[in-house]
Amino acid sequence: MAGKAKLYYFDGRDRMEWVCWLLAAAGVEFEEVLLETAEEVQNLIQDGKLMYQQVPMVEIDGVKMVQTRAILRYIAAKYNLYGKDLKEQVLINMYMEGMKELRDLIMLVPFALPEDWEKSLSFVAEKATQRFLSVYEKALKDQRKNYLVGNQLTWADIFLFELILMVEECKSGVLSAFPKLQEFKAAISKLPRIHKFLQPGSPIRKPMDEANLEAVKNISRFNN
Ligand SMILES: N[C@@H](CCC(=O)N[C@@H](CS)C(=O)NCC(=O)O)C(=O)O
Question: Which domain holds residue 9?
C-alpha cells in the first residue's frame, strides 16, 4: 500500500487546489503539509525534494512529484479521468489550457491594488463570458451527457466545475446566458465524491486574502 497522498504547499488557494479537487474526484485520500516559512521550503530543497525549488510537491505512490500539470496528468491517467484515446486527450488538454488562462486571471485579482479590485473582477467576468464559457457551453451542447468529452467524467469536468465556482465569486449570475453550464454545474455537484468535497470542513479554500498573500511571500525565495 502506497498510503495517503501527501501535499506540500502553503495555506492558500492556488495551484495545489487543483490537485485537491482531482484527488477528491478520484476518491483518493490525502493529507496536506502547509508550509509557513522560507526555512521549511529551504529544508525541502536541501533534502532534494523540490526539483525546481518550487511547490506544489506531491508525494504519491512513492514518487515526489512537482509541476502542477504533470501531477494532474498522472492522477487523471491513473484514475481513468484522462480520456479514452489521444483525440479525447488533446481535446481535454485544449479545454484545460483555456481554463488555466481564465483561472490565472482570477488568481491575479487579489494582487491588484484594493482600489482596482472591482475593475479586475469586471474584466474577469467579461473575459469569462466572451471568450471561455461559450466554448464550454458549446462543447456540452454537442455531448449526450453533462460531460465535456466522451460522455464520461474527465479531469476537464472537474476543473470546469471549480472554474464556474470561481467565476461566480467574481460576478454572480455569470451563468445566466449559459443553460448547459447551469445544468452541468447542478449535475457535477451531485456526484457523490464532489458532493462530499463541497461539504463544510473540506479543504476547499476561499479566495486569497492578506494572510494567504503573506504566506506566499514567506515561502518565496524572492523575498528572502
Ligand atoms: N510551473 C510550476 C510553478 C510553481 C510555482 O511557481 N510555485 C510557486 C508557489 S505557487 C513557488 O514555489 N515559488 C517559489 C519560487 O519560485 O522560488 C507549477 O505549475 O507547479
Answer: 5-79+198-223
